[in-house]
Design goal:
2 domains; 4-stranded mixed beta sheet
Amino acid sequence: MTPTRQGSFRLFEFRGIEVSLHWSWFLVGAYVLTSRADEYASPFWNVAEYLALFALVLLHEFGHSLACRSVGGHSDQIVLWPLGGVAYVAPPQRPGAQLWSIAAGPLVNVALVPVLYGALWLAGERGLYDTQPDFMEWLLTLNFINAILLAFNLLPIYPLDGGQMLRSVLWYFMGPANSLLVATVLGFLGGLALITYGLLAGRLWTAVLAAFLLFNCWQGFRFARLLRAHLAAEQARARAEPPPVP
C-alpha cells in the first residue's frame, strides 16, 4: 500500500525523475499549520516550516533514486504523501546495489546535519536570537525535523530504510529470500512495538504510521515466501536436468 500517480499530480521533473504530490498532502498540511499556529509570531514561518519538511523529504528520496541509478538500476518516479515520500527504485538484484540504493537516503540527512547545525550556530553568533526569533525557531525546528527523519528511517523495521538495509546485509549470508523473511519478521515485532507505543502514549499519528508499516511488512513477508518457493523450485529443476553431453 504505497502511493502511485493515481491521486497525485506532477510537480516537476529532474534528471528524468518525475516528482508527484499526493492530494492528501494538503489535508495534513492544513492540520500541521493549524496545530502549530502559536509557534511563530507570523504565519509565514508556519508555511516555511512545512515547505522545509517537504524539501527535506524530497532530498532524502532523491538520494535513493540517484544512488540506484549509479549502480545501474532504474528509478524515474518519486511520490510525496503524508506518511513521507516513496522513491520507486529498481536496483540490480545484488545485495551491494540494494544496500547502496537504500542507504543513500539516510546519508543525505547525515550530510545535512552539519549544514543545518552550522547555519543555526552562525545565526546565533550574529545575535539573531534577539532580533529574529521566528527565524531562529525555524532553524531549530529544521534541525529537529532532519534528526527525527534520520533516526526514524534507521529503525530496523521493514520497509523503513533501516529494515531494508538490514535485509541487504543479511542477503550476503542468507540469500535474497531468507534475508527478506528475517527482515520482515523483525519488522513485525518492531511495528507492533511502535503501534503499542503510539496507542499508549496517545500519539495517533505514530499508531497510524505503524499500522501502515505492518501492512507493508506483511506484503514483504508474503513475497519472501513466494520467492523462496520459486528459488527452491529452480534449484530442484536444475538438479533434475541431465548434465550436458560433451
